[in-house]
Amino acid sequence: MSKASVEEIKIASEGLRGQLAELFSDTSTPNIPEDANILLKHHGSYQQDDRDVRTERTKAKLEKAWSFMIRSKMPGGRISAKQWLIHDDLCTKACGNMRLTNRQGIQLHGVLKGGLKEVIQNVCHSGLSTMGACGDVVRNTMGPAAPIKDAVHADTQKLTEEISQRFLWRSTAYADIWLDGEKIDPEWIKDPEVNPAVREATQAPEGEDPIYGKVYLPRKFKIGVAIQPCNDADIYSQDVGLVPHVVNGEVEGYTITVGGGFGMSHGQLSTRPFLGQPLLYAKRAHVVDAIEAVVTTQRDHGNRVERKNARLKYTVQTMGIDGFRAEVVRRLPGIETFPAKELSFDSVEDNLGWHEQGDGKLYCAVYVSMGRVVDRENGPQYRSAFAEISKTLDLPLIVTPNTNLIIADVSPDQKAAVDAILAKHGVVHSDGMTRARKVAHACVALPTCGLALSESERALPGFMDKIDDSLRELGLENEPILFRMTGCPNGCGRPYNADFGFVGRSPNKYAMFVGGSIRGNRLAGLEFKTVLGEDVPAKVREFLTAFKSERKDGEIFADWFARTRTTGDAPTPEQFHIELAERAAKLAGDKVGEAG
Ligand code: SRM
Ligand code: SF4
């Protein structure tokens, strides 16, 4: 689908309404047309098919095995026990499990067309929603996962919620289509936890969206907040990153970074990952307005001709960071902005295990392999464990950016009960694991992702078994080393700033990127264009062996790499700009070189 047609579909949709209501009340077909799927994304769902059976069904001249993925949004990953139980219940309408996402949301896969409305209704009944979880709008806002009870953590969580509220798309379409026109309001839901942002957004008067207009953003838009030195929200990978500046224990304001983003296409130099760059510092009262100025600058200046170059990162590159800043500041009349503060981070890791949270209570961060909350026959029974904790102890949960799960607000006398439930279901939070394994993540990929070129979620645990052996043999089991994998170059697993990023090219073949950083602040380079899956652990071992023999005292892998190696092939900024200009010219129908 070309970029122009996506734009046309959005414009013609009347507040993202389209024909979705009619299509989903027609039960005679298992799927919807592609243009409707584009609108559906803004409602938090994607049409997919089971790729494990695609070939055999095509051979048998059967239709694809269609189903829908549904993504729930929760700023900062916060979800109550009751909301969790509603999602757990909905697993039975999906493929029997749920997937924690690395933007702190929850995905249910395999929902059939006839069941989609009921699932979305139930998510809304829980007080969460799917509105804007996908599509050309601001997505789920990420924030620090640890539920530390201090003024700074309280403020970052409040900020994720303020952002979420400000940037929800506004139209009655969502309520009309999924909730039979009933607006999401406390009377109807009878739930004090109802999300006020969604209530307001679904009651919006018809007409243009106040922020997004008729045509929404050129592309998806992502925001994350992190408190130094923990970069769990991986702010340099975000369109907008936010970091609080703390004075006397209180947040004075936020440094704003812009233009991070990871999607690329193999071999296409005009697409590439970028890290966010410092934009400015704003006082707390002006932070959300400053973000709105960034969002509207992207709305008005982003590329609406080529979706591959439509993310904010390309707008920032095209305008230059100084030009971009000038435009943002111009949109903030009467608001004083300041130079960005220096930032410093240690790691993107979660702090797994038990910790005090600062109010006499405890939290427990539990490792969830690849974020898949499932009961495995010969492994951990994550789904049963978390459901039982929610049912019997009614404790709030938090999805982390590394797709683990935090059990929060545990009073000391509940700790033994939590441990007993986890142990009963074989969930051994992180005991005995290498440090690398605790943070290793793979995107979903096969069998649900329509864009996957190779396995990812189903492959990384096997890769890590062998890598773990090397780490243990070399005595590196406690080293902070970041491994991430994706089934295609779109970069969902955030592989491009990892120490090692494995990026699917075709079945069992991966491009191998090396030399990012566990701090999330450096891009890896393309070290090997194609490596067979079975050869990946040996390639990794070569680096680990060199690290072990060459490292200086206390030096971590990322610093050893930076000191001793140069990152592999990556397009230079010049190459990138030349290709970008060439592509734009081609798309505009000009002959390259003849313009001007
Ligand atoms: Fe992603 C598309 C899964 C985080 C970059 N992503 C997809 C789709 C929806 C495939 C599709 O378009 O048909 C995947 C659904 C697979 C499935 O079956 O579930 C998908 N992305 C995911 C998740 C579930 C991966 C995970 O391991 O958790 C993450 C959901 C987060 C959420 O709750 O919203 C997810 N995706 C990311 C990230 C990381 C992040 O946001 O922190 C990135 C890289 C950062 C970035 O956006 O630049 C990412 N996803 C993409 C892209 C490439 C965007 C680009 O700029 O080119 C696509 C494809 C697209 O948009 O065209 C994509
Ligand atoms: Fe799918 Fe590619 Fe994203 Fe993995 S990186 S979930 S394969 S789009």
Explained architecture:
With 596 residues, the protein is an alpha+beta fold. It folds into 4 domains: 1-72 and 106-137, no CATH class; 146-175 and 198-349 and 569-596, Sulfite Reductase Hemoprotein, domain 1; 353-424, Alpha-Beta Complex (Sulfite Reductase Hemoprotein, domain 2), CATH 3.90.480; 450-564, Sulfite Reductase Hemoprotein, domain 1. It has 20 helices and 20 strands. The strands form 4 sheets. A 5-stranded antiparallel beta sheet has the order 1-2-5-4-13. Strands 3-14-15-12-11 form a 5-stranded antiparallel beta sheet. Strands 6-7-8-9-10 form a 5-stranded mixed beta sheet. The longest helix is centred in the N-terminal third of the chain and has 16 residues, at 151-166. The structure holds siroheme and iron/sulfur cluster (SF4). Residues 46, 48, 69, 71, 101-103, 105, 107, 139-140, 220, 222, 237, 261-263, 311, 443-444, 448-451, 490-494 line the site of siroheme.
Radius of gyration (CA) equals 23 Å
Terminal-residue CA separation: 30 Å
Q: Uncertain segments of ≥5 residues (pLDDT<50)? A: 186-190, 590-596
Q: Biggest sheet: strands side by side, in what order?
A: 1-2-5-4-13
Main sheet makeup? 5 strands, antiparallel
Helix count? 20
Briefly note the CATH topology name of the largest domain: Sulfite Reductase Hemoprotein, domain 1
Query: Superfamily at the CATH H level of the largest domain?
Result: Sulfite Reductase Hemoprotein, domain 1
* Number of distinct beta strands: 20
